[in-house]
Amino acid sequence: LEEQNRFRNEHGIKAVGRHVPAALRDFTDLVQRYNVSQSLVDTVKECGYEEPTPVQRQAVPCMLEDRQIYACAPTGSGKTAAFLIPVLHALGAPQGGPRALVLCPTRELAHQIHRELLRLSAASELRCTVLRNLKESKIKERETTIRKSDIVISTPNRLCYLLNQDNVNINLSKVKWVIIDEADKLFEGSPEQASDFRQQMEQVLAACAGRQRRVAMFSATHTPAVARWCRRHMRGLINLTVGHRNT
Ligand code: ADP
Ligand code: MG
């Protein structure tokens, strides 16, 4: 245990919660410890990722053990792969119908996440879609695409807009992971935006009604509003911070 703490300190990782899984020494650890496929680990290395970044060292094992996390790490520290690697492992083979949702504040960011996902899922058959603005006439096509997708990336606005259409039926009951990226921005817009977002989260979580549904939050800064929401809504929460907390 002491050795674990020393290792975390060396990498500037702070982890608070019950039974926090050991941090990763190496991406290769994933094969022995979590039965992650060699092809996923090879793909990660082919992306040029030799060593996990600090947030990846701690967030990946937590998510692979189905633990809900609130992870804060600086911009550019690899948070996207930190949630995509465990999501890709958890989903395994394609089934059709969303089993992971990634929510983020802007469409641009959604496309960035999608690009990273395309690289990391090179060896997998999983399908992914980014929700975007559509003409009314295209909404039915959109429904079909979502039904075939394992992973859906969206802003909360887009997703809730579709969930609120009477003629659209989107089944989120098989969603295993709900990822909130740049949570600070979603929770800390104008008071109006922030309250809209809380309502949207309620709607999304109600729709993702599966018993095994988990939430993971990622953010560059630690904010009390997000921390409070996580404490209230995420059972068995682990708080992760990399570097110093910049509030
Ligand atoms: P964040 O979301 O924390 O701001 P990103 O996920 O956008 O950071 O990653 C920033 C950059 O680091 C990207 O170009 C990504 O490809 C790269 N990256 C991610 N993980 C690693 C890694 N383990 N080793 C090297 N580069 C990485
Ligand atoms: Mg990011």
Task: Give structural notes.
- There is one protein chain.
- This protein has helices spanning 2-10, 29-34, 38-46, 54-64, 79-91, 107-120, 139-148, 156-163, 183-187, 191-207, 224-233; strands at residues 13-16, 69-72, 100-103, 128-130, 151-154, 177-180, 214-219, 238-242.
- The two termini are 29 Å apart.
- It is of the alpha/beta class.
- Strands 1-8-2-7-6-3-5-4 form an eight-stranded mixed β-sheet, with helices on both faces.
- It binds adenosine-5'-diphosphate and magnesium ion.
Give the key terms.
8 strands; binds magnesium ion; 247 residues; eight-stranded mixed sheet; 11 helices
Summarize the topology.
Elements: H1 2-10, E1 13-16, H2 29-34, H3 38-46, H4 54-64, E2 69-72, H5 79-91, E3 100-103, H6 107-120, E4 128-130, H7 139-148, E5 151-154, H8 156-163, E6 177-180, H9 183-187, H10 191-207, E7 214-219, H11 224-233, E8 238-242
Helix pairs in contact: 4-5, 5-6, 8-10
The structure holds adenosine-5'-diphosphate and magnesium ion (MG).
Magnesium ion (MG) binds next to helix 5.
